[in-house]
Amino acid sequence: MIRDFFRLAEHDTVLGTEIAAGVTTFLTMAYIIFVQPAVLSGSMLGIDTGMDAGAVTTATCLAAALATAVMGLFARYPIALAPGMGQNFFFVVTAIPVAAAAGVAEPWRAALGAVFVAGMLFLLLSLLGVRKQLLETVSPSMKQGIAVGIGLFIAFIGLRNGQLIWADPATAVRLNPVLASPDTLVFLIGFLTGAVLHARRVVGSIMWGMAAALAATLIFKAVIPLLPTGMADSPALAGSLLATQFKLADGLVAVPPSLGPTFLRMDIAAALTGPMIPVVIMFLFMDVFDTMGTLIGVGTQAGLMRDGKLPRVERAMLSDALGTVAGAALGTSTVTSYIESAAGVEHGGRTGLTAVTVSVLFLLALFFYPVIAMVGSYPPITAPALVLVGVMMARNVTRMEWSDLTEAIPGFLVMVGIPFFYSIADGIALGLVTYPVVKSLGGKGRDVSAGMWLLAALLVVYYVAVRTTV
């Protein structure tokens, strides 16, 4: 029955291969289970967003499991979904502050509302089949610039959380002068392990890097108290986060955390107010770009394209949109298709059974929450994952059209604006406003769509008339 439903023979695959491919995909993307609660709760950024980390963990696993199951059973593609890297940071560093500045009592609920509304719009666009027009509004170079900028931003946060760089009033940031601190050593051990394994194409390299960082943390935690008093008080150890933040797990398995603190807590009314509308649009654009890029990339690799088109693409888009809507209702940021699904495809995954396998593994992961909380309590353990993800996103820089300065300049402004402004939305806005101006004055105004002019005008109005008043 399973073989017939997923048409394994037609795709020249077998049950064992599909399940093994699902395990492979899960291992390459499971880092999100550890990173997502730390990001949305704010602990990774040294702030308190008001979101409960346990509830976010449950919401993340459930949303990923649900969306991936729909992708496997409805669209029947070997593509897994989970809350997206980039969108989660946009949620915390842009959506929540904008809601707070607008006077919303619980800004995180407004941010969830923005995700929910964006998901509903994505669902509507998928049903109406107008995704092509939306995608063509922004040029390919701008899309790649956005991906690179977010990658640099995530990597910057990873380097900071790994204590490799410090804040400095004179130069903004600088290299940590105490590189022998436990925090930095944990980060470097995890990063180098993950980087080497990723270079050697080892499955789950990011997870193995985090595992190495965790192992180093446990060793340091056990050894430091045994050091003589003079050594324990040295500059390398005195300012370490290890003693104050790392919390050892009580066990390996436990009942999953309650979903109550985040379930159906999105504030849709607040998300529909003036200051939040651009946030909704940004969530929508990032989700559409990520989804289409992943579907095309993985679909091509799996040999699923037919005459340059992906069969059942509308079903795949619907799966993604439903995942975002469900994720917001459960209490997590935008759910999107993961490019890491390519790892499972390389392992032979060709059908929805691969995705269903990933879905089951996300559900099983919930019962290991003590380990998830332990890893998330100490930023240097998850920091290597951020830097490695940043590296993978930054490679899109080669796809930008550097020979055409009317494309390169706005794309570059997006790329540097996101990390320099410490805001994904502000960086994207800089590029979107600059693009039609540079194109038109550069003699290529006909390349600018009406939708691009409208978007640029709305952003100017927002920043001049709305953003300055909140």
Describe what this molecule looks like in 3D.
The protein is mostly helical and 470 residues long. The protein folds into two domains: 2-165 and 251-376, no CATH class; 399-469, no CATH class. Helix content is 66%, strand content 3%. The chain has 23 helices and four strands. The chain has helices at residues 2-6, 15-29, 31-41, 53-75, 87-101, 107-128, 131-137, 140-161, 182-199, 205-223, 229-232, 235-238, 242-245, 268-271, 277-301, 313-330, 341-346, 352-365, 369-376, 379-394, 405-421, 424-441, 450-466; strands at 81-83, 165-168, 172-175, 335-337. It has a two-stranded antiparallel sheet with strand order 1-4. A two-stranded antiparallel sheet has the order 2-3. Strand 2 and strand 3 (172-175) form a beta hairpin. The protein is globular, with a radius of gyration of 22 Å. The protein starts with a helix and ends with a helix. The relative contact order is 0.21. The mean pLDDT is 87.
Give me the secondary-structure topology:
Elements: H1 2-6, H2 15-29, H3 31-41, H4 53-75, E1 81-83, H5 87-101, H6 107-128, H7 131-137, H8 140-161, E2 165-168, E3 172-175, H9 182-199, H10 205-223, H11 229-232, H12 235-238, H13 242-245, H14 268-271, H15 277-301, H16 313-330, E4 335-337, H17 341-346, H18 352-365, H19 369-376, H20 379-394, H21 405-421, H22 424-441, H23 450-466
Antiparallel strand pairs: 1-4, 2-3
Helix pairs in contact: 2-18, 3-4, 3-19, 3-20, 4-16, 4-18, 5-6, 5-15, 6-15, 6-16, 8-20, 8-21, 8-22, 9-10, 9-20, 10-20, 21-22, 22-23
